[in-house]
Structure formats: C-alpha cells, structure tokens
Write a structure and sequence with these properties.
This protein is an alpha+beta fold. The chain has two domains: about 270 residues, no CATH class; about 90 residues, no CATH class. Helix content is about 30%, strand content about 15%. Helix 6 crosses helix 7 and helix 7 runs antiparallel to helix 11. The longest helix is centred in the middle third of the chain and has 19 residues.
Length: about 400
C-alpha cells in the first residue's frame, strides 16, 4: 500500500475488540524447545530461599510470594510459587513476533500480564490478528492460530485482535452492522472470516495503524478475499483444516550440508540460492525468502538470532540446548517455505492495491452514515464468556 488517506478505515474500526500484548516479565519462560523449559522449571523448584528468588527474577507484578488466579484453560497451581514442588506444566505453543513459533510455560504465577481474556477465547476455532504499523512496507496484517505475543521485531507491543469474542467461533469481533452493510453492497453474504481474509490481502501499515481500505466493487472484493484466503492458509501453516505450505517440486528447500552444532553466522549465497548456517547449507532458498522483512528487520536473521544468541551464565535462560536441534532445521525449512510463498504472492497484492486505489471505495464517511462508525463502546470490551468457575488465588474460585 503506497499511500493512505484519512478516510480509509483502520483495522481498529473493523475489528474493535483488541487486547494489549502479553507482558511476561522474565525471558526464561519462553524457549524454542520444550526440554529447556522443563529443565528451567526443575532448576527453579529445586532452588530454595534467596537462590529461588534470584532465579525467578521478581518484578513488581510477580514474586515467588505472589497470589494469582489460574490461567484460563491451564491446569496449573494457584498457591504461592515459593511453595511449588510439582512437575513442570505442559508448555504451549506461542507466536513470537513475525513468523516465529516457540514455547511458553503457561503458569500465571510466572507471567506479569498474561492477558487472561485472550486465553479464555483461545480454541480450535479462533484466529488472532496483529496489525502492523509503519512506513507502508511489509505485510499489513499477521494472523496466527496460536496465541501470539503481538510484538514487533523491535520488541514493541501491539494490539491482538481475536476474530471471535467467545469460544467456539461465536460472536465475531467485527464492528456491528459491517457484515450487513457489505452484504448489501456486494449482493452476496459476507462473513467474519471473509473480512479477515480481505484485511490480510488489502491492508497495509500506516502511521495511524493498520489501514484496511474497503472496495465498493463486488468483483474486486471476491478477488481480494480469495487472495486473502491464500495468504491466511500460508500464515496458518496447516492449522484450521488447511494443508501445510509447500513449494512446487524442484523448488522445495532441503538441508544439503548438515548444520553444525553451534552455527555462529547466517549468510546467503545469491548465486547458489543457498542459506549458509556456518558450514551448514540449505537450498534452494529464493531471494525473496531471504530478503523478507517485517518492520525493517529480516525475518530469517531474527529467527536465527533467537536460537543462537548467548545467554547470561548462571541464569535460567542459560539452560538451553548444547547444540543445534534437528527440529530447528525442520522449522527453518517450513519458515523458508512460508516466506517464499508469501513473497510469491507479492505481485498479486500489489495489483489488488493498485485496483483498489483506482476504483470506488467504501470510506469512513459511508461507514458513519450506515451507523457502523463510531463503534459502540461495548464492542471494544471483552464479552463475559464464562459459564463455569475459574480457580482463583490459593485455590479460591471466581465466576467471571
């Protein structure tokens, strides 16, 4: 998207309920492998007194003496962590910035601001969208099936927007009246998932946030939502019933030379289309995958750095694999595939944006005339979703 005018609606107008990024307060609760998290947990519960406090890394929000409620959907303890001696809870998948997935210890006692309202609606029907702000380059919208941390490559927290306000795909997080208006304008039923697909294809970063121009052309809407469906399928990596992303035969990347135990550098050989991890070699890797950036940061550099950057000795973060894990190579091959496929659809996105800019659009004034804007305050607040008790601090129960 090359330019954005003041009458273009923002993602905040179309998907009004959003939640701030989780704030964990300590880096050791996240890792790219589950074994490290279990080792860190075991080391922490074995430690006593001041040593447990030192390893825990207390903040004003969380100390080993904090009393907090259980994280929704997670069977973890609510007693003070200073008394914890049980086994490590099962780590859960977490989206870490753009296109990276790692693992999280889902224990509320360890997380400064876990955003329970997101966990309450996270299920097999949910999608999480994170709009990108910036200078107009890169994807405008990132979508995942797992709970994301909502952070930019620079570490800045963004807003996370679930597609549904209630579990089970109930009550879409779409501005009231928007689907009815678009259904009337296009002469065909418009669903929440189509609006998300359109946003994935048509959105772009802007200084005001993620901008989502709406076409008034029914045929362009159909083309855009089909393109968005393809983009979402790639980003979701087989979740929600889709197939795993794959490049055509002959273009699929393979490990040609084994990645060494401790690769220190990541480089690209453009002539050979090869990704070099120390003496390791993966090819073919399209240049578009290597050059793919979000927020001005190369995605592959960010992914590699999170797995190879040194940790401070004596900390829980230092409990990590002694060398490169085989599953990391598999994850890297899939990431290369995702970036290459997204880059390959770049010309289609450019063409959609060109037609969108040249054709009739539904701007903020029309949305206001139809009563879609301003969005009612209630639509920006979380729904009351519980019909059961959640365990509160020290085993008490609360109904939310």
């Amino acid at each position: 998207m090359r330019s954005v005018t003041h009458d273009v609606p923002l993602l905040d107008d179309l998907m009004p309920w959003s939640v701030g990024s989780p704030r964990f307060g300590r880096d050791w609760v996240v890792a790219p492998d589950t074994r490290s998290l279990k080792a860190r947990w075991d080391a922490l519960v074995r430690a006593e007194g001041p040593e447990r406090e030192r390893l825990f890394r207390a903040t004003r929000a969380r100390t080993p003496e904090s009393s907090v409620s259980a994280l929704p959907g997670q069977p973890t303890g609510t007693g003070r962590f200073s008394r914890e001696a049980g086994p490590c809870p099962a780590p859960v998948r977490l989206g870490c910035g753009p296109f990276d997935e790692q693992w999280l210890l889902p224990d509320h006692r360890l997380l400064d601001a876990a955003r329970p309202e997101l966990w309450r609606v996270a299920d097999e029907r949910q999608y999480f969208a994170v709009g990108q702000a910036g200078d107009g380059t890169g994807p405008g919208l990132l979508v995942s099936a797992v709970l994301p941390d909502g952070r930019s490559p620079a570490g800045r927290g963004g807003r996370i927007r679930p597609l549904y306000r209630r579990p089970g795909g109930a009550e879409p997080n779409i501005a009231p009246g928007l689907t009815d208006l678009l259904t009337q304008r296009y002469g065909r039923e418009v669903t929440a998932e189509q609006i998300l697909a359109w946003a994935a294809a048509a959105s772009g970063p802007s200084p005001a946030g993620c901008a989502v121009p709406l076409t008034a052309d029914p045929e362009l809407w159909s083309c855009g939502t089909e393109l968005g469906r393809q983009l979402l399928g790639i980003q979701l990596r087989g979740a929600r019933g889709g197939g795993r992303p794959r490049l055509p035969g002959g273009r699929r990347p393979y490990v040609r030379a084994a990645v060494p135990s401790r690769p220190e550098t990541l480089a690209y050989d453009a002539g050979e289309e090869a990704l070099l991890l120390g003496s390791g070699r993966i090819s073919p890797v399209p240049a578009g995958a290597w050059d793919f950036t979000v927020g001005g940061v190369r995605v592959l550099d960010l992914w590699f750095g999170r797995r190879t950057a040194p940790a401070e000795p004596g900390t829980l973060e230092a409990l990590r694999p002694s060398g490169w894990l085989p599953e990391w190579s598999s994850e890297l091959l899939e990431l290369i595939t995702v970036l290459a496929l997204l880059d390959g659809l770049g010309p289609d996105r450019e063409e959609l944006h060109r037609k969108l800019a040249a054709g009739p659009r539904i701007g903020r004034p029309e949305l206001a005339s139809a009563g879609v804007l301003p969005v009612p305050a209630a639509a920006r607040r979380p729904a009351s979703v519980l019909d059961h008790h959640e365990e509160g601090p020290e085993g008490q129960f609360a109904l939310v």
